[in-house]
UniProtKB/TrEMBL annotation:
<dbReference type="InterPro" id="IPR053138">
    <property type="entry name" value="N-alpha-Ac-DABA_deacetylase"/>
</dbReference>
<dbReference type="InterPro" id="IPR055438">
    <property type="entry name" value="AstE_AspA_cat"/>
</dbReference>
<dbReference type="GO" id="GO:0016811">
    <property type="term" value="F:hydrolase activity, acting on carbon-nitrogen (but not peptide) bonds, in linear amides"/>
</dbReference>
<dbReference type="Pfam" id="PF24827">
    <property type="entry name" value="AstE_AspA_cat"/>
</dbReference>
<keyword id="KW-0479">Metal-binding</keyword>
<keyword id="KW-0862">Zinc</keyword>
<dbReference type="InterPro" id="IPR043795">
    <property type="entry name" value="N-alpha-Ac-DABA-like"/>
</dbReference>
<keyword id="KW-0378">Hydrolase</keyword>
<feature type="domain" description="Succinylglutamate desuccinylase/Aspartoacylase catalytic">
    <location>
        <begin position="49"/>
        <end position="229"/>
    </location>
</feature>
<protein>
    <submittedName>
        <fullName>Succinylglutamate desuccinylase/aspartoacylase family protein</fullName>
    </submittedName>
</protein>
<dbReference type="GO" id="GO:0046872">
    <property type="term" value="F:metal ion binding"/>
</dbReference>
<dbReference type="GO" id="GO:0016788">
    <property type="term" value="F:hydrolase activity, acting on ester bonds"/>
</dbReference>
Length: 357
């Protein structure tokens, strides 16, 4: 646990003292006409000293489930803190968000541009600003993401579990699936952790959407972390199970065609189980894509038309005994948000029985 801090906090030149809540427009860039482009930030500070936590969303401008999670957290629940500081950034990539685009106007991926550079590219400057104005001034971080274009992700937390502080943070969030890894080079969570701020990410749902079951899991996770850190009262909301994932793999199309899926996101699969059937454009069966391992489907294509090599399904490896244990856990509570997420995310896929023509 970091040392409790109650000194004045300055973000973007604005001082936020203990007991204050302020909305700040953090200067990011300018339009062609010289108007300032600002990142919206809300800072909530308790009068009592405690940890500083940031929650960011929409580093990819089309991944707005995280924006919805922060929105619901702010307006659907009480944000009063017992101690510490909470910094909420519902949209990091304002330029991409305004244009419904994943990337920045310079076509760079902001989430491969950290730690950034004060005098670098547009992406580098924004990354530098986020690192130095937000991440480095906090003790913990949560970064909210969705799947890439034409895919959906079953809710999972990704974290570098070799770090004890990050491992505790990931566990406290309370997601059913925790995937081990440092993150890609240049990613925000990797560089934030490297700079001394333990950071995790939530991957959930599709781009361009705000999905109710994803919101429930995300808001619940933020609140779990705050309870764990002693920043809010209450009891954490545990998931039906929590699996640590060490290895994942992508199944890819071998021929061009149209997919019909046989499983939904979040489904447990066994080795040899049919995942999808690839049909020709005239409806002739070409091949059946099967799982090479036991596991759980953590990501799936939502675009049924595929070319050779394109992703079909992302499988997180589990043992047969793990699957049986986790299946029993899910069956105990029919109202669990993870079961609801599995049902909701499947509505954007053509899921049929294996023998259906």
């Amino acid at each position: 646990m970091p040392k409790a801090r109650n000194s004045a906090l300055k973000i973007g030149g604005v001082t936020i003292r203990a007991g204050e809540t302020k909305d700040i427009g953090l200067n990011l860039s300018e339009t062609y006409t010289g108007d300032t482009i600002r990142m919206p930030v809300r800072v909530i500070r308790s009068k009592k000293a405690g940890p500083r936590v940031f929650v960011t969303a929409a580093i990819h401008g089309d991944e707005i489930n995280g924006t919805g999670i922060i929105h619901d957290f702010l307006f659907g629940q009480s944000c009063e803190l017992k101690c510490g500081t909470l910094i909420l950034v519902p949209v990091v990539n304002v330029l991409g968000f305004e244009n419904n685009q994943r990337y920045l106007p310079d076509r760079r991926d902001l989430n491969r541009s950290f730690p950034g550079s004060q005098n670098g590219s547009m992406a580098g400057r924004i990354a530098y600003k986020l690192m130095n104005e937000i991440a480095k001034k906090c003790d913990y971080g949560i970064d909210l993401h969705s799947a890439a274009f034409q895919r959906t992700n079953y809710p999972n937390v990704r974290a570098d579990l070799s770090s004890p502080n990050i491992r505790k943070l990931a566990s406290a969030f309370g997601c059913a699936l925790v995937i081990d890894g440092k993150g890609p080079l240049g990613s925000f969570r990797r560089e934030s952790a490297r700079a001394g701020t333990p950071t995790i990410i939530l991957e959930a749902g599709e781009p361009w959407k705000i999905e109710p079951s994803v919101l429930q899991i995300g808001v619940q996770g933020i609140r779990n972390v705050l309870v764990h850190l002693g920043m809010q009262d209450g009891q954490p909301s545990p998931p039906p199970f929590q699996a640590t994932i060490r290895k994942t793999l992508w199944l890819r199309a071998t021929v061009g065609g149209i997919l019909k899926f046989h499983i939904s996101p979040g489904a447990f699969v066994r080795e040899g189980e049919a995942i999808a059937t690839n049909y020709s454009i005239l409806g002739e069966e070409q091949n059946i894509i099967t799982s090479p391992t036991h596991g759980i489907a953590i990501g799936m294509a939502t675009m049924p038309a595929v070319k050779p090599g394109e992703p079909v399904c992302h499988i997180a490896k589990l043992s047969e005994s793990q699957i049986k244990r986790y299946e029993r856990s899910l069956n105990k509570d029919k109202s669990d948000p993870y079961k609801q997420a599995q049902s909701d995310l499947a509505t954007n896929l053509d899921v049929v029985e294996v023998n259906e023509s």
